[in-house]
Amino acid sequence: GNSVTQMEGPVTLSEEAFLTINCTYTATGYPSLFWYVQYPGEGLQLLLKATKADDKGSNKGFEATYRKETTSFHLEKGSVQVSDSAVYFCGTSYSGAGSYQLTFGKGTKLSVIP
Amino acid sequence: NAGVTQTPKFQVLKTGQSMTLQCAQDMNHEYMSWYRQDPGMGLRLIHYSVGAGITDQGEVPNGYNVSRSTTEDFPLRLLSAAPSQTSVYFCASSPVRQGYGYTFGSGTRLTVV
To answer: pLDDT per residue over A49-64, tens digit each?
Structure first.
């Protein structure tokens, strides 16, 4: 089955710093790739996605590019804010034989300090 | 559009008690699933369903039952609660098609004493 390895945290950055959270995956076929964000006390929200190689997903200043050659989908943001403090999950989808599942990494906790 | 609704938001159970966590979605999604989230463990899949009348086990199914009698509802039953089931539980739904992510509920925080 699919698997996801993402950068272990916690990650602490100062406001306006550059953020990279690494994510690599193993999958059969052509999966879709996702980043989810979980704010304290809340459920997971879809942050961005990419459905084919070289696609770039973007939202709220965050970006990630689907790199099939390196099986990666690293999350980046040029200037983080305190409000970006959350846990970030990378995910890859499997679809086939009438089934559909997302496999998630273990999450990376980001804390942004003023 | 309510999305995915989970009830209750908080629950305390005594060891050995049973209960049902409710999950409902109004998006006509075929796929629904239950995850538990524990510190340092990420999200672990308990059970999932690809449509009414069809369910299957995930990574950690022991101690939990599910059924799917309608497209909208996917309840999770704890048969005899144990302290090891103390966790935050999330329900998620999705179309069964590539390129669609999950929509998650806001979670149920369960404590078993």
So the answer is: 999 899 999 999 999 9
